[in-house]
Structures are given as C-alpha cells and as structure tokens.
Amino acid sequence: VEQVKRIVNKEENIDIMLGSTLMNIFSNILTSPDSDLLESSSEALKTIDELAFKIDLSSTSHVNITTRNLALGVSSLSPETNEISNFSIGLPSNNESYFQMDFESGQIDPLASVILPPNLLENLSQEDSVLVK
C-alpha cells in the first residue's frame, strides 16, 4: 500500500492507464489475509480516494475502472449543469467477472446507486466552483 500511495501522491494528474494499474494492485491486495488488511485498510481507502480526485477527466466526462474486487467511478460535474446526475453499480451479468458501472440510465437491480439533484452545486462560491471538475 505504501508504494502505491507514494505513486498517487507524486502524480498531479493520473491517466486512465495508470489509474487502472493502481486499481488492479489494490484489487490484488484485497486477496491478502484479513490480518494484513486490518493494518493497511485505512491507508488503502485514503489512497483510493486521492486517486479518484487525481483521475484526468480532460478527455472524457467520466471514467469506470473495474477490477475483480474493486470498482471506481469518477464523473465530472459542472456548477452550470442543470441535469440530474446518477450512477449505479451492480453485480456482473452474463458470466462477466467484474462489477458493472453505469453513469447513464442505472442498473436494473443495482447493489448501490446515487442520484445527485440538478441544483447540487448552485450555491457554491466562485472560489469553490473553481475546485469542482
């Protein structure tokens, strides 16, 4: 976990390829014995959170990175957007081995889903609006 954390902290923007590689490493870490995970889980979650903030969305509005044990979805939001944003995640279907993530219509029977209202960012200060990507 420490080596991956160093990579994430060093990079300012993380492209999809590097993000996928790092998520695969975390997925493999999740197969470790529970005693090992207990010691590193807090740092791993913080590092994955930081990774999500650093994913480069300049060429796309959202990114799905799914692995056998872990899924990460990152979507850009704009204070000017007046649309409902939603995403969901479901179990694999048709013998696929990874989680299924949807940023559009949602899953038929999702494990989890989030719906963000269109006015979510309307009261942001100009200073805070710059931070939203």
From TrEMBL:
Adhesion G-protein coupled receptor G2/6 GAIN domain boundaries: 1-55
Primary subcellular site in the record, as a coarse category: membrane
Keyword Cell membrane tagged: yes
Topology term for the membrane: Multi-pass membrane protein
Statement: the UniProt record of this protein carries the keyword Membrane: yes
Cellular compartment(s): Cell membrane
Keyword terms, alphabetized: Cell membrane, G-protein coupled receptor, Glycoprotein, Membrane, Receptor, Transducer
Protein name: G protein-coupled receptor 126
Species of provenance: Mustela putorius furo (European domestic ferret)
